[in-house]
Amino acid sequence: MELYPAIDLRGGRCVRLLQGQFDAETVYSDDPVQTALRWQSEGARWLHIVDLDGARAGQPQQLHILDDIVSAVRIPVQFGGGIRAEHHLQKAFEAGAMRVVLGSVLITDPEFAERVFKEWGERVALGVDVREGKVAIRGWQEQTGVDALELIQRMAKLGARRVIVTDISRDGTLQGPNLQLLKQLVQEAGIPIIASGGVSSLDDLLALKETGVEGVIIGKALYTGSISLRDALERVG
After folding, report:
1. Res 186: pLDDT
2. Active-site annotation holds for 51
3. Does the pLDDT of residue 139 top 80, yes or no?
4. Domain locations in the chain?
5. Active-site residue identified among 8, 51, 171, 204
6. Marked catalytic residue, from 51, 53, 129, 171
7. Host H or E run for residue 28
8. Which of 57, 47, 53 lies closest to 79 in space, CA to CA?
9. How far apart are CA 5 and CA 25, in angstroms?
10. Using 50, 70 and 90 to split pLDDT, how confident is the model at 151?
11. CA distances from 202 to 1, 69, 122, 205, 226 (A)
């Protein structure tokens, strides 16, 4: 099971939001590059970077920081936030992203989704943000009423290779992941699942491994010290 330390960018700083609320922000570092180097030094094999400003604006805002991080580290970077057009995707790859996460645009434009999956394959991941089993889009600001499993199965038929599932109600809470939802998705989605949201302890990671998810994105628990990345990699990585 792959572990992805999360670096959420807002205004050039590393922050964490509570349940996706922009007015519930905690700043953990003013230096994203040093943060990336820290996770690499502790054994990370991937980084997960989110441009929160981009997610809100509908286009990437911090590709220069992505570029700086990629230049500084030796491990691949997964990047998302505001990627809603083909030229956004191209710019993220040019800035050095190994894999780019797309959410809103894939959900609202199936033809674009099919084209992107066909052209980029493994380098594109579907991002599905879930609140009470339904999908939210546009930086979590808009609820769709679309069932998460139904959407993932539809995208898998269009060519999606993997999906990152974020449970908004758990994100930034340290209250544990939504194991029931993730078990169902692993069993029925038809493509690999990367879980995000709520991880607070090694026990959570062990429980997630039991569900069969391919990977886990860890955010707040690393920044508060609830989880040591080295220990986590030894136990479940």
Report:
1. 98
2. no
3. no
4. 2-236
5. 8
6. 129
7. strand 21-29
8. 47
9. 18
10. very high
11. 13, 27, 28, 5, 9
